[in-house]
Amino acid sequence: QVRLVESGGGLVEAGGSLRLSCAVSGSPFSIHRMGWYRQAPGKQRELVARITREGIINYQDSLEGRFTISRDNAKSTVYLQMDSLRPEDTAVYYCTALITYSGAGGADDYWGQGTQVTVLS
What we know:
The chain has 121 residues and is an all-beta fold. It has strands spanning 3-7, 10-13, 18-25, 30-39, 46-51, 57-59, 67-72, 77-82, 91-100, 108-111, 115-120. Strands 2, 4, 5, 6, 9, 10 and 11 form a 7-stranded mixed beta sheet that branches. A 4-stranded antiparallel beta sheet has the order 1-3-8-7, with no helix packed on it. Strand 4 (30-39) and strand 5 (46-51) form a beta hairpin. The radius of gyration is 14 Å and the shape is elongated.
């Protein structure tokens, strides 16, 4: 079955950097749009960035310039490079992917379990 596993989260000082990775396993038929969301305590989950298979990218306006999303289709992996981190970036970061699991068609959204990013003040 399809599974998404995030890695790379941790605790960093303000101004530091982290690189998150998310690998898709389970022999998906096709992986379409991939992206990252985040959720801070007491707040709604919000879009960070997303990328299509062809490389079309959308960022949350406030994050563009500090965060960079990319993907390696051969490895079924999406990345999020985070630079100049701020305390307000502290959140659980979730990977998501729109996936066609079999040749029968159709596609569903899948989510990872999340990885904690904590930025010290």
